[in-house]
Design a protein that fits this description.
With 219 residues, the chain is α+β, with helices and mostly antiparallel strands. The protein has two domains: 1-37; 39-202, 3-Layer(aba) Sandwich (NADH Oxidase), CATH 3.40.109.10. Helix content is 46%, strand content 13%. The chain contains ten helices and four strands; from the N terminus they run H-H-H-E-H-H-E-H-H-H-E-H-E-H. The chain has helices spanning 3-22, 28-36, 51-61, 81-87, 96-101, 118-121, 128-134, 136-160, 173-180, 212-215; strands at 73-78, 104-111, 164-168, 186-195. A four-stranded antiparallel beta sheet has the order 1-2-4-3. Helix 3 (51-61) packs across helix 8 and helix 7 (128-134) packs across helix 8. The radius of gyration is 20 Å and the shape is globular. The relative contact order is 0.18. The structure holds flavin mononucleotide.
């Protein structure tokens, strides 16, 4: 290891030690915000969301771990009425009105050619690119898997900065690809309305969640 590499490693370890000194775990309020009380939202207050907020959300989302640091997610934010109108015909009937009302709708996609960026994103093993270049099905599976993880990080990042999320799988992905990503290597994954949720859109109490023993095993 060169001297500068040793210095960079020491600095990286010092950063971890530093934040561990400052914070041990999330407090109860933060856990409520992120997990226990955070809900999926269906109706939106007339309260704007700024571009700076969207940038902050990306700057958190991008920090979530992905395999080989591949970062395959690509996000198209639809804010203008014109952009929303282009999305409208792809939406399932129950997702139309709330999407038109939301201050912003994110189309979360993934890049099947994500591997072209691996030399920059994962310089530790630049040859990782080769197996994806050789097999499009393996590349797409990897992109969808890791892009979905990033989609989940995105929802949690929205909550972390005090925004609400309304995720939606009910749309025609192929039609959205045709409308927004024609001629590119991007493919749609899911949609997420963004804003400040109007409580009128909450239609009932939290649905049942599996207890540990119903979903988990320790062997
Ligand atoms: C990836 C994803 C796709 C979803 N698709 C839809 C959808 O198309 N339409 C809808 O009304 N809700 C959709 N939902 C919302 C879920 O139904 C909702 O999160 C779930 O019922 C649990 O509710 P809660 O998060 O408020 O506890 C989706 C949620 C996720 C995470």
């Amino acid at each position: 290891m060169s001297e500068s590499e040793e210095q960079a490693l020491a600095a990286a370890r010092a950063r971890i030690a530093d934040y561990r000194n400052r914070i041990e775990r999330l407090d109860d309020n933060s856990l409520d915000l992120m997990f226990r009380e955070g809900r999926n939202h269906n109706w939106w207050l007339d309260k704007p969301v700024s571009d700076d907020q969207l940038r902050e959300v990306w700057d958190l989302t991008k920090m979530g771990s992905t395999s080989g640091n591949c970062l395959p997610a690509r996000i198209l934010f639809l804010r203008t009425p014109e952009a929303k109108e282009r999305l409208k015909p792809t939406l399932g009937p129950r997702n139309v009105e709330k999407t038109m009302l939301a201050p912003v709708t994110a189309l979360i996609a993934y890049d099947v050619n994500f591997f072209e960026h691996l030399p920059k994103l994962y310089p530790i093993r630049p040859e990782m690119k080769d197996r994806f270049e050789a097999d499009a099905a393996v590349a797409e599976d990897f992109a969808y898997n890791n892009g979905s993880l990033q989609g989940a990080y995105f929802i949690m990042a929205l909550r972390a900065v005090g925004l609400d999320a309304g995720a939606m799988g009910g749309f025609d992905r192929a039609a959205a690809d045709e409308e927004f990503f024609k001629g590119t290597t991007y493919k749609s994954n899911f949609l997420c309305n963004i804003g400040y949720g109007d409580l009128e859109g909450i239609m009932g109490p939290r649905l049942y969640r599996f207890d540990f023993d119903e979903a988990c095993q320790i062997i």
